[in-house]
């Protein structure tokens, strides 16, 4: 076990002899033994013993010590006012963090100040704005098994969004996990934790929480009839356990600001039976079937660059979401990402979004007015979440009020819209007039951050508070006049009236004037050059002021909490409004992109519209890659024509000609259409696709013991198991990770299987030119190529796709363009020419006749280099010889092979 977790061994041996404060620390560490406890001492969060040594190293802070009668203990601390940045570092290091706050004021206790864990901060349950990495959802997950069924629950603790699904296939659940990328998960007994990625923290949690009856009771506090809403016992187990865990980590035992203490006084952590309040802002559970959405597994999400760019030095926003996101609010941004994460299959739902985008695209004034208004919308989902958890401050409530003030204008801008989707949004835009008026009446326009020190409740809201404030003002006004009155009464022109936090109000007289001090002055403080006094009337007035201000602060705090609870009671109305605003913002964003970048409305085909039933039809005129066209000065559009008679396209052409871009743009156009977006094309007609598979680009998993070729074969195995006639499959350079003969054989077998058995609509880009002959043998296969012009040895790419097969891969020419040294390129040209003349170089051995001329020439060139390096009887340095022996030609592209050969030749010359 990590020594930084759990009760420190040095303290455990002497627990009963520890000071009360150190005993508190020990006991909290024992109770929260799976988290690193940050223990409030004054203005700092402290750690002790092994935890202190660990945090000092991780956070780069000073390691000190604290001593009591039992010994000296290492100690390190972080300032509370700046704790978030340190907590973030601890989370990144893999720790869960338990925040142990002082839950009573120092003056309220005769003994040690009471402390309790008010929340446990974990990667999947963040609610603090400073710790949330982005405006996107952060989901915690729970996985439960019941028989063959796996239930998956997902909860965003910051917004209250709560989802559930299940499947009998672990692969299908793994795909759903990939969609949402939860940073943390709790896993029930017998459930496969390995479905979560290495980046996800799988947190141990009480197995009893996954018990069906206990989970159902927990879930019933949030939703009615969970047995009716959910489709399986596995879903009930996952949902109930996840809610129980969320209650535990979010500090349901505490109210947190002035420190109500925990209701469970047991020294042992009893997470299931502790009296915790439900998360009041979790008001809806959405049960969905993965088959309702276009399925994108982790490979497709990565290959299509939906959320993260693959290029290390790429543009920051070079993702599909990046080019679509013109949203004005955090709400809209989250909604748009969810739509891209889960494209639709149901034609009616897609058409509903497209209708709204079309109307907004055609109405510039409405679109721009809405966008400007939505810029004034705050993150209502997170605001109402904080309000329900009683962690919202007065500024949060004012932000909520400011958002509500925008709603009437948004409704006015939607007046008269035609499509059903926009009319429904208009109806859902409840301005919550009562909530807005309550906040307007109760909270000052610019309140302070702190809610316990007064100055947040508006004048006129509460008569008792106004009276207390009046008393304090009158007292201060009397004191303001006191200085002039006392100067006149005593004749001491230098007399001053002042105040400090220690001694309160005083009258200060310099030493030369002490003889003129009246008899009713009582000495309060002696300074070097003066004396400070108080009169009975001044003391009485001071007591009145202090008492009135303290009572006013307490009254304000109570009133604020009442207002906050009243707002929290309207959580469902606020969430409905938030969803409507988010949806509208996402639609405005899609319409803005469509209008700005010349997108067109796609036409969705019904099954009976297709030429043949069952398969897909995809027709794109002048299609463009939505991401690449934003990063290039110009982009060449290309057409696509796929149907049941032409569903396997074998695409050839040189590197850099545009094969991968073409395939990705087809998939992204399909995805955009099913999101409900217009698409970058002159025209598009398509059948909704149920799943997109990709095998694009080279990657490996060396840590997991898998080479590039093994990763490629794993991804292909998934495609061959799960693709069907409603799938779109993208295959790029399949079979390049092994010998040329094996690669061609694998690629041909896969093409035949996809065509004959799966019936999937497929785009297959390859440098294995013999595969183009399959178009003559397979009924629904055909060839496409990217043509180039070659003049004086230079290749000009036109990036236009044409029917038929390419005449070559132009590997040597591409090597030239890449800057490979001229002597290496010329040698490669010589070998290509020799091959063309039928003269096989001795070093070629039995080169397979299916290899491309460029690849064979490059291998020959490398072979001659190896012979030269070893022909002189062993003068080659040992490290160079070792490099030559271990050189893996099967994993090198032609350009990489030439570059590697040039490097080795230079080493040999040296």
UniProtKB/TrEMBL annotation:
Q: What are the boundaries of the region Disordered?
A: 252-271, 834-855
Binding positions for ATP per the UniProt entry: 653-660
Q: Where are the transmembrane segments?
A: none
Keywords annotated in UniProt = ATP-binding, DNA damage, DNA repair, DNA-binding, Nucleotide-binding
Q: Name one GO biological process term.
A: mismatch repair
Q: Which residues form the DNA mismatch repair proteins mutS family domain?
A: 727-743
Q: Which InterPro entries match?
A: DNA_mismatch_repair_MutS (IPR005748), DNA_mismatch_repair_MutS-lik_N (IPR007695), DNA_mismatch_repair_MutS/MSH (IPR017261), DNA_mismatch_repair_MutS_C (IPR000432), DNA_mismatch_repair_MutS_clamp (IPR007861), DNA_mismatch_repair_MutS_core (IPR007696), DNA_mismatch_repair_MutS_N (IPR016151), DNA_mismatch_repair_MutS_sf (IPR036187)
Q: Which Pfam families match?
A: MutS_I (PF01624), MutS_II (PF05188), MutS_III (PF05192), MutS_IV (PF05190), MutS_V (PF00488)
Q: Which GO terms describe its molecular function?
A: ATP binding; ATP-dependent DNA damage sensor activity; damaged DNA binding; mismatched DNA binding
Cite the record's Basic and acidic residues compositional bias ranges: 252-261
Gene3D superfamilies in UniProt:
1.10.1420.10, DNA repair protein MutS, domain I, MutS, connector domain, P-loop containing nucleotide triphosphate hydrolases
Concerning NCBIfam families, the annotation shows: mutS1, PRK05399.1
Q: What does this protein do?
A: This protein is involved in the repair of mismatches in DNA. It is possible that it carries out the mismatch recognition step. This protein has a weak ATPase activity.
The similarity annotation says: Belongs to the DNA mismatch repair MutS family.
Return the protein name: DNA mismatch repair protein MutS
User: What organism does this protein naturally occur in?
Assistant: Natrarchaeobaculum sulfurireducens
Task: Quote the gene name from the UniProt entry.
Answer: mutS
